[in-house]
Design goal:
AraC family transcriptional regulator; Class_I_gatase-like; 11 strands; seven-stranded mixed β-sheet; transcription; INH-QAR; 14 helices; alpha/beta; 329 residues; DNA-binding; two-stranded antiparallel ribbon
Amino acid sequence: MAISTAPTRIALVCFPGVRAFDVSVITEVWGVDRTDRGVPPFHLRRTAAEPTPIALRGGLSLTPDRTLAWLARADLIVVPGLDDHVTPAPAPVLEALRRAHARATPIASLCGGAFTLAQAGLLDGRRAVTHWNLTDLLSTRHPRVKVTQDALFLHDDNIWTSAGTAAGIDLCLHLVRTTHGAEIAATIARSMVTAPFRTGTQAQFIEHPTPRADRDADTLAAVRAHALAHLAEPHTVAGLAARAGMSPRSFARHFQATTGTTPLRWLITQRIAAAQKLLERTDLPVPEVARRTGFGSEVTMRQHFATHLSTSPRDYRLAFQQDQAPARG
């Protein structure tokens, strides 16, 4: 589900105990000027209850440039994770987050930042995710939260939560992608030398013994590369399995263990991403976009856009198409 407005004013909520890594991720996504590459001029503000420097782990410090009152002006509020996941957030922070949610301001948390939102009561009765190693702790300390273990990030009632560490990057780029388009998110991702999105769930990262055969994913990587290079062609699990030299059942099991998702779900995700890029960067008719990305028909592509992006291909193009599209080819 997309945020209703395209956020350019981003509030980073700071208080003693927040993780330096998460602060850096938020700053890297929204605090770097990339307007020369077509990225909107984001305005990231470091907000806190007091304007005094905040000590971070590793000998670092963070100096707020706004008080929590600035949250009333923010289009999006982002809460970093915590070094100690049971760190109590200051009462002014919790109250400011409650007021922001009451105003319908989107709020996102990275990793253990879900504990802060739970302290504020914002996750009561809602689905949320955190690092897979912290899900039991979150459930125990906040039993009214519907904790999910395997997602990279989740959305529920204008609140976003994400799994551990790198999943915070995934969520930040996803928020950019759903509000400013896939090309803007890809530009930021390229400058960060990271993937614009990852498929699957954090189930692929949970510690558990795996057979040695599952650790060698070269064959599956080659199959995925082939599918990406031939998106317009119809693909079936049986056909992909044959290319990998496996039975369909074995292929599906190995694929999910490696990527955290099923072959068909992965393929749909790739087709949606390719269609987004074509809708943004070309003036190809929507039916042709559907053909080139393997959906076959505009109707099928429209159904998947509605399910995964809460919009239609035509509305997506109206919102995100670049001013100058290259010639058809």
